[in-house]
Amino acid sequence: MRRRSPVILLAAALAVSTVPVAAASASSTADHSSAGQDRVVTGELWIAEGQTRTGSEITAMAVRDSSGTFVALDAESGLRVLRDAQVGDTVSVTLRSGPEAAASTVISGDVLAPAQDDEQDGQQAAAEDEAQTELSTSGPGVAGGLLDVQRAATSGGATAGVPHRTFVTYIDDAAVGGDYSEASARQVLQLGTDYWKRETRGVLSGWNVAAAKKWTRTSTCSVLSDSNPNTLYAVWGAAAAQYPSANFTWKPGGDTLVVFVPADCFSAAGWPGWTGMTTIGTGLRSGGFSFIVVGDEGTMAHELGHELGLGHSNVELGSTLSSHILEYGGIHSVMGIDVNGYSAPALDAALQYGLGVIPASQATTITKPGTSTVTLSPVSASSGVRTAMFRSVGADGAPVIYAVEYRDGKGVDATAAYAVPAAAAFPLWDPASTTVSYAPGVRVYRLEAGELAQKGLGSTTMTNPPAGGKPRTATFTSGTSYKDPAGNFTVSVGAVGATAAVTITTRAFAVLNALAKSTTTYGKKRSFVGTFSNAAATGTVTVAEGSKVLGRASVSAGRVTVPLPKNLKAGEHTLWVSYSGTPGATGFLPERGPVTLVVKKAKAKAKITATKSRLKRGRTAKVTVQLKKVLKAKPTGKVLVKVGKKTVSKKAKVVKKVKVTKKKHGKKKHAKAKKKVTFVAKVTTKKLTKKGKVRVVFTPKNKNLAKKTYSTKYKVR
Ligand SMILES: [Zn+2]
Fold first, then answer.
1. pLDDT surpassing 80 at residue 309
2. Which residues keep their CB under 5 angstroms from ion ligand 1?
3. Given 1.10.150.20, 1.20.1260.10, 2.40.50.140, 3.40.50.790, which CATH number is that of 6-113?
4. 314 CA distance to ligand 1 centroid (A)?
5. Element housing 608 (H / E)
6. Residues 459-515: pLDDT tens digits?
7. Neighbours of 189 (CB within 10 A)
8. How far is the CA of 99 from the centre of ligand 1 (A)?
């Protein structure tokens, strides 16, 4: 969502305080409010992003089920329960609806299938059969692995010449003014298209309007109130239904729906004060849903940015906030707040990297610890190195990517808000009403991980505390520096002019750079093996699947072996590998990432006997097949007999048999009986007609066991 600058917001808030706020919850449907009843919903996860007038962000989550219906989730519980989930994943959630609830509370949830990453699937297939897989570098350069995790990297997703197919709806609501016409709606969309064509250097060719329709409806402003986020999806759904041929989805090649809401809704009673809202996509080719209220360049470009998978640009404010982060407060970025009347700034270089549109020669990635000096061209320049990126760790020990760029306030940025003198003392809306200087200079920011990353690939600008009568600073000028509070890195700024000289010093670290074999078989012993770039590395490596820890081991002599359970179910497992080093000792860098482990089905051992050792043509034969369990996998299922290629029996069921033998010489009177469990199928063949070798085919019921054909010592003569 996009909101106007604090000055504008203040005026809107005053206007609203004298008018009763419309009861928006009245519009929640019966389906979503059956009191106290839990229900399970399965489908794709959708997240739409925005911000209220008070500065707190608003997230509207929903699951789209197989019928295409959106079921809204309460975002607070949704983000917590589904913290491992990303936009587009297939999830199953258990919901509890209360009579007053605007959206259902998420009680529990699971990711059933991650959003498909075709390239990774291809890599996995190539890595079959015991091949060693690289853990940390599934994408390009230093940042690739993490960017892939955040699903913002769109390697292979370049859409040169392939515009987004776009459907435009403009609302006609008699109760409110400022309705868009088809012409004005198209004009606004064009502003966003022009921005993204420019900032992707032509990789994106725009949003082409396939159809535009007027939609006459009522109560538009109050229905879209932020106090009831689920109605957003209901309105999008109703607008989308008017284009039956369209396929609105976050998936590559998905269509885009932009609903233009009467501009006067922005100041109407009960209206939340946002100017746009959009679902988060997964990359350059994603489609999705947007609302546009205020039709300026900044809003339109920002909303389309969400559709491309980008999250908000934030600012870190030391300890003035409990979270330290003011979401949306990064005004150097189009993904931050839209300061009314100023143009959208050049796209952050690290976001260009995330979208895969920056040439490799224009992004330096620092992979080794120590000191590096980089000459940065302005972020809006068409040549030269425009960003230096490096890895470090966040306060919670999780790996984070930092980026450094030079914002000179010239070129396309000359009319951006940060380039005007007023931005040297920009008032924010955090509880402490912090003032921050965004004046031109070198900007240090990190790409967001964790909950913020769920809302798209976001960025947070680092700041230095107020000093010498000047406010907190979000940019660093010649002779100043930014020092990471944990001491993991320092960025020092040298000469600044047409370019900026920057020195980046990062601490020594150990990188986990080897791995488990990517394929194993159910029931077999398998370990995750890692080696470290630094033999002095200490700490623990943990391998987990979701929240379940599968194994943990200490690092010794630069090496670690983590045994994995034998009973991992057959199929694909996404394992997370994390390394906790020893902060402050040798310096460290935890590394983690998804490793796909394919567990193959196990083959059950079989003992096969026939009643006669010589099987003759013209007669039937009786064959007994005894199968063995593999770990806990019971070999029930069916068997049939073949002679040569010909099937000579019906399918016979494998039956579990328990043989009880009483203990004869037990010392105790009631000595326990001995139980022997076997799995047996008895097959009688049809009259045998052909010569050939006898074979038995076992089709197991258990999903951890493989279908297998067994050869036998028997022959038909
Ligand atoms: Zn937004």
1. yes
2. 1, 49
3. 2.40.50.140
4. 11
5. strand 606-610
6. 999 999 999 999 999 999 999 999 988 778 999 999 999 999 999 998 765 555 445
7. 25
8. 30
Question: From ligand 1's centre to the CA of 100, what distance in Å?
Answer: 27
What CATH code is assigned to 519-579+588-600?
Answer: 2.60.40.10
User: pLDDT for 519-576, tens place per residue?
Assistant: 788 998 888 777 765 666 677 787 877 778 888 888 887 778 888 898 899 988 877 7
**pLDDT higher than 90, residue 91:** no
CB within 8 A of 484, min separation 6: which ones?
A: 392, 490
Reduced to 3 states (helix: H, G, I; strand: E, B; else coil), residue 67 is coil
Side chain identity, residue 379? V
Which strands form 457-461's sheet, in the order they lie side by side? 325-326, 310-316, 457-461, 441-447, 399-407, 387-393, 363-366
Q: How far is the CA of 153 from the centre of ligand 1 (A)?
A: 19
Asked whether this chain's domains 6-113 and 519-579+588-600 adopt the same fold, the reply is no
Distance 224 CA to ligand 1 centre (A): 16
Q: 276 C-alpha vs ligand 1 centroid, how far in Å?
A: 7
Please tell me the distance from the alpha carbon of residue 587 to that of residue 577, in angstroms, as a whole number.
19
Looking at residue 152, its pLDDT comes to 35
pLDDT of residue 33: 34
**For strand 2-3 and strand 274-279, is the pairing parallel, antiparallel, or unpaired?**
antiparallel
Distance 331 CA to ligand 1 centre (A): 12
Mean pLDDT of 250-258: 90
- The pLDDT tens digits for 185-209 are 999 999 999 999 999 988 888 999 9
Alpha carbon of 305 to ligand 1 centroid (Å): 8
User: Measured in angstroms, how far is the CA atom of residue 304 from the centroid of ligand 1?
Assistant: 9
How far, in Å, is the centroid of ligand 1 from the Cα of 337? Answer: 8
C-beta atoms surrounding 610 within 10 Å? 18
How confident is the model at residue 19, as a pLDDT? Answer: 23
CA of 280 to the centre of ligand 1 (A): 9
Gap from CA of 308 to ligand 1 centroid (Å):
12
Residue type at position 210: A
Amino acid at residue number 192 = G
CA–CA distances in Å: residue 87 to residues 38, 46, 82, 152: 23, 5, 10, 11
Look at residue 138 in the predicted model and tell me its pLDDT. Answer: 27
Query: pTM (2 decimals)?
Result: 0.67
Q: In the chain, what are the domain boundaries?
A: 6-113, 313-507, 519-579+588-600, 606-716
Q: What is the CATH number of domain 606-716?
A: 2.60.40
> What six digits make up the tokens of 342?
């100023």
Of 506, 471, 509, whose CA–CA distance to 492 is shortest?
A: 506
CA distance 291 to 232: 9
Q: With a cut of 70, say whether residue 115 has pLDDT above it.
A: no
